[in-house]
Amino acid sequence: MGAVPEKEKDQLYVRSAARGFVYTLPKKVEEILNTKPDDLRDRHLVRIDTNILDRITIDVPGRNKIVLARKDSNWTIASRKNAPANSSEVRRVIDTLQNERVTNFVEDVASNLPKYGLDKPQLQLTLSSFASENTAETKAGEQPFATIAFGKTQGENVYARLTDEPFVVAVRRSLLDQIFTDPVQWQDLAIYKFKPEQIHRLSVSAKSESVLARDAKGQWTWVKGTGQINQANLQSLLTSLSNLHAVRWC
What we know:
The protein is of the alpha+beta class. The protein folds into three domains: about 10-35, no CATH class; about 55-185, no CATH class; about 195-240, no CATH class. It has helices at about 30-35, 85-100, 175, 230-240, and strands at about 10-15, 20-25, 55-60, 65-70, 75, 85, 105, 125-130, 140-155, 155-160, 170, 200-205, 210-215, 220-225. A hairpin with a 6-residue loop joins β3 (about 55-60) and β4. The N and C termini lie far apart (about 60 Å). The mean pLDDT is about 90.
């Protein structure tokens, strides 16, 4: 390849060694020929088939494992007696992992894991399917299909690898901040789960205690206290209480 023709800036002189003559080609051909192998690699950190994703296990050294389990379209914290999980938060993490791109391909052969802190990862994330019964294709139980290990941080990146692949990559360090390592942060944000009509007695304590109860007709009356009761305002309070949600867990 040679210079750019003066009158055709989008062209490039090219000489064929075999044929011995000179001709022009579009300049973008040079960019294609200068493509490096890493430019052609899939930059997704991991590919996730959400149709078979039933378990997410978060393993941090020195802490109990967190296991999130799918139940129909929602998620539970299996490691906490299947307590309801914040399903929106779980789906957010799944979407984040699916969209995460490798910032750098560090090594094609992970022969020196301690160098990158991957011999003893600071966090390991395992994605699994789950079958309650044996089938012709799979055995009952959990079947991991991807495990991501996160090692040392380096500047704005953290070293990572899929444990069934030979190479080491770097991804955004901020990705770790989006994977909660405290089970409390995975809890469902709902504080109460009941309907307003299920409340039959209400006690309010400040300097003194006031108690109200529903009568046989569904109207609220004083058990302890006096004054006129605004039934509409009280019903509004019950509706707010029954739908009370935390903004986040600390």
